[in-house]
Every structure is written in C-alpha cells, then in structure tokens.
Amino acid sequence: MEKADWIWRDGEMIAWDDAQVHVLTHSLHYGLAVFEGIRCYEQADGGAGIFRLKEHIDRLYESAHIALMDVPVPREQVMDACRRIVKENGFKDGCYLRPLIYIGTGAMGIAALENPVHVMVAGWRWGAYLGEEGVRNGIRTMISSYRRGRTDTFMAKGKICGQYVTSILAKREALKMGFDEAIMLDTTGVAAEGTGENLFMVKNGVVRTPSLGSSILGGITRETAMELLESKGIKVREDSFTRDELYTADEIFMTGTAAEVTPVREVDHRQIGTGKPGPVTETLKGLYASVVRGEISDYAKYIDTITF
Length: 308
Prior knowledge:
Layout: E1 6-9, E2 12-15, H1 26-30, E3 33-35, E4 38-42, E5 48-51, H2 53-66, H3 75-88, E6 94-103, E7 117-124, H4 132-137, E8 139-148, H5 165-176, E9 181-186, E10 191-194, E11 198-203, E12 206-209, H6 220-231, E13 236-238, H7 243-247, E14 251-256, E15 260-267, E16 270-271, H8 279-292, E17 303-306
Parallel strand pairs: 8-9, 8-15, 12-13
Antiparallel strand pairs: 1-2, 1-7, 3-6, 4-5, 4-6, 5-17, 6-7, 9-10, 11-12, 11-14, 14-15, 15-16
Helix pairs in contact: 2-3, 6-8
C-alpha cells in the first residue's frame, strides 16, 4: 500500500503515520465495525470523480444502524471527508477510499454500549483488485469449502468487519490452492458470491445473479452492472443456480467496487465457455469503464466531481 499524506478521523485531517488506535480498541478485539470501499477515477474531462459516493455512504450508515452503532458524525460530513481525502492527497489520477466506523476504548465487555464511536476515512492508489491480467483474460476460481451464512444467522446486508472472517478464510484457502478467488455457496448449496464480489453467470444469452433476498451483499457495483446491461437490452434474471450450472455457463463474471467487472475463465479446473471473457462480460467491462470515468453523460449523476 502506497502511503498518502492525510487520513481523516473524527473531523480532522491527521498525518498518515499518526493515524493510530490503542491496542484495546474494542473493534480490534470483537470485530464490530462497519466500512465501505469506494473508488475515485480520473475523469475524461479533467479532475477526479468519486463513483456513487452518496450510495456508498448511505450503505455505510445503514450498516451502522444494523449494528446498533450511533454514528456521531452526519452523513454529509463523511461525504465531504471523502472529497477532502481525494483533494488534499492529490489523487488526481484516482484512488480507493475506505470509510470506517469503529468502537473505541473503554469497556471490554462484548456490548460496550458506552464506548465512543469513531469515524475515519483513508485513501490510497489501488489498481485492479484481482490483477490486471485477471481483468483482461479472466481469473481461476474454486468452490470454497466455506459457506455464506444463512440470512437468519448474520446480517447479510451490512458491511460489518467481523463478518468478513469467513471470506478471509475462503480467500486464503483459494490462494494457497493456486486459484485467484473463491466462490462461496450458501447453506442450501446454491451459489452466493465471491469473497468480496457479487456473482453473475450467462447461459444461452440469459444473465443470472442471486437475488437480493438471498444471503448476498446488496452490491452497488452489482446494481450498476444490472442497470448498464439492461440499458443495452440485456435482461438480468435474479434467481438461484447451482455449482454445476456454473461449470456449464457460457460466461461468468464478478462485480465489486474493488474488483470492478472481472471475468471468470475457470471454476474447479473446469473451463468456462471459450476460456476467455465472453461478449456480455466484455460489453459490460467497456461500458462500466466509460461510465466511471465520466465519458457517458447519461450517468453523470453518479459522479461526484473533485476539481484541483
């Protein structure tokens, strides 16, 4: 990770190396914190643009609400903090933004209802999450031995830090076995998502993705992808599908703020389609890249522009 100059915390800008917490920070011990990942892109007509900033901050506050965390900072101030991080760190060429709401020191009991709640925003330059080669030619995946939890056992729609432990274990397992990413099934055995991405498959021209009512995160990039595909007359069907349907898919791709649109060329040593990104995936990749860089005026509403 390349250091930047500034991190925002609780209303003030702090030098990168000074943005530290106590070892008894409650969230460090028990995992109750919420976060977002947001991308900012260099814009075609100059400046930088944060993509879907409001939607991300809205989801951040929804996650905090789900987690019974009272946020001491209004949403607009956190949005402004994201803008300041881009501007004051000189991220003209874009960056990745990480807002985090966490519980500080005080009581070490599990509830810690009286502990202070802190808010921070950091940013750094970050390329393709699953690698430039993977974005171009597709990634190799495996079906994980770890399952995505049932919707009555965890808060699927919250980006809650502690809930990512299962995803971390699945990702580590996949990397140690020589794959780029893991695909997680839910407890009924149908496909759910990647370790940090939403999942799509294409078969006979039909695009399918698990429904929002299942144990998936409500991805903002997922929502954007569906909107962009339908703008090209490509309908997306929300339903369940099995691992062997993935094996025989014509195309598979994953979406996420970090992953953007990443093709999948292999699942469990089985080639997907031609073994290369298919036409639907390539169409979406190109369209998404144009939208986030402000090249299509119809989607200007999604760009929060930063001028330098």
